[in-house]
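JOB MANIFEST
job_type = single_chain_structure
chain_count = 1
residues = 330
[input]
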Amino acid sequence: MSLGFLMKIKILWAINDIEKIYYPILAAVGVPLNVVTIAILYRGKCGVSKCVARDLVAMTAADLLIVIIDLILRQIPIVYRELFTFVWNFRVCNIHAVRLHAVADCSVWFTVTFTFDRIVPICCQKLKSQYCKEQTAAVVLGTVSVLISLKNIFWYFLYTSQYLLSNEPWFCRVSFSVSRSLVWTVVELMHYVLTPFIPFLLILLLNALTVRHILVSSRARSRLRGQSSGESPSDTEMENRRKSIIVLFVISGNFILLWVVFMVCSILRRLDYLGYPVSLLTFVTEIGFMIQLLRCCTNTFVYAVTQRKFREELRNGVEYPLAMMVRLIR
């Protein structure tokens, strides 16, 4: 038993040492990467509709804010707590929590809106001309942002204003009465149901409907073209649909994989505080935080892998300043 306990402590120390390197590198990469991605998407030369481009810009902006609000202002002070003890003097943790959870929720729900906007032109041709507009995307994203901000105000009352500097789902101090309150437990569990559990289900459902529609349409096109397979390289329509499936699956799969560990750990930890003991290893929670924060950089790589024109714009964006530096040196 003692050997098992010592092993857990060693694993936890090793993870803490990794975090001291991992988080600063992630922050150093995440800020410029997301800024460049926003600039490329904003130019509108990536071969996607303006409606989808709005979604991608919103998702990337949310990722950039996560880097700043969660990674730089929360996680780095926690892993280097001996250098950030002055943070305890700033009584703004509950305000920080509202902003942090609102930004995280926006990142999740913007993924849902992106999934829906990719599905409409594929499955709902009649609705495409009316819905798939830049103005509509802006209204939807704005409405989602406002609703999410209002929903996350409850964190202000759940937490106290003092920082805890502990890498747990509760990074602010919480009063004993609140931590054991059934009412606040229900409210907090509802938060995790709304984000990210319901988005999980919506994304899976929308993707399943899309795949079903594309498969049915593929068979119909194959019969019309007199072919036994819908995988003809000359069928540009099928090629575009295939690319749409790849984009949807990569972004959706990336989102689910990076969120699932954190979501499960947060729910189990809350039940444990309420008096329902759950065997949850501390280092699993730490790993959940590390994996979840990786999402703030992965979308750029997803765009680069799935979008040829985005890769070209990204390459041009890297080559141009390098060429200017070479000219200045000469």
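[summary]
The two ends are 67 Å apart (CA to CA).
DSSP finds twelve helices and no strands in the chain.
exit_status = 0
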